[in-house]
Specification:
Number of strands: 7
Helix content: 40-55%
Order of helices and strands: HHHEEHEHHEHEEHEH
Structural class: alpha/beta
Shape: globular
Distance between the termini: 46 Å
Radius of gyration: 22 Å
Number of helices: 9
């Protein structure tokens, strides 16, 4: 089996369309479609359902996608190990981080690392903590920097203390408070990070312990979007970013 078949299969699934994947891969759409038919013939199962001009992962395709990602990650790891055994210092380091870490610390981290290891290629992935941990477990990332400590079987190390922040407009009645409890937010409408972020999960656990049910105006993947809305006074009586 040609590993390019799997790489192109994953690219199509990520792109959501044959045409977009072909543009990203710099191959023709008929050639890409032919490769998928060859892969389906080799595997003996259907990878995509074709609905008019659209495609969607078939039931078998969803399982094969996860296995394909693992196999491609193993192949890349094998190549990198071969480089190391051959005496080379190069290779690829795949790192995942939350948007907060990418903004606050990653520029300095990258500068220092590249100064010490200029021969290593860094590939960054942004995401919530759950997704990043899953990618480490699947071998798609070498390491990840989520918001909370990772549980076994993965090894983890604490990099810095975690603070959960509430961001409010300066005019809000609670803006002068240095510390807010969950009960303080009971009557507020929140702008909050999406459920896959571990700080969101920490907040929900605190709400559950306090038997609080805060109202949510918006869930977002972008902390900066939430901050911008909060600064403009949106979010009901107040606006928060957690």
């Amino acid at each position: 089996m040609d590993l390019r078949w799997l790489a192109h299969f994953v690219a199509i699934a990520d792109a959501g369309s044959m045409a977009l994947a072909a543009r990203r891969l710099h191959v023709s759409e008929p050639a890409l479609s032919r490769q998928i038919r060859e892969l389906e013939g080799f595997l003996g199962c259907k990878l995509f359902d074709r609905i008019g001009r659209r495609i969607a992962l078939a039931a078998d395709g969803r399982e094969m996608l996860a296995r394909s990602r693992r196999l491609l990650a193993e192949a890349e790891s094998l190549r990198e190990r071969g480089v190391a055994l051959g005496g080379g210092k190069g290779g690829v380091l795949r790192v995942g981080a939350t948007p907060q870490f990418l903004e606050a610390a990653m520029p300095q981290v990258l500068t220092l690392y590249r100064r010490r290891h200029p021969e290593v290629e860094i590939r960054l992935v942004e995401g919530g903590g759950d997704r990043l941990i899953h990618m480490v477990e699947q071998g798609e990332l070498h390491l990840a920097m989520p918001a909370l400590k990772v549980i076994e079987p993965l090894q983890s190390a604490l990099l810095y203390p975690l603070r959960v922040l509430a961001v409010l407009s300066r005019q809000h009645p609670l803006a002068s408070r240095r510390v807010l409890s969950v009960s303080d937010l009971q009557k507020e409408t929140l702008l909050i990070l999406a459920p896959e972020f571990q700080t969101r999960q920490l907040f929900e656990a605190a709400c559950s312990a306090a038997r609080a049910e805060p109202r949510v105006l918006l869930e977002s993947q972008s902390p900066q979007s939430l901050i911008a809305l909060a600064a403009a006074g949106h979010g009901g009586r107040s606006s928060h970013r957690w």
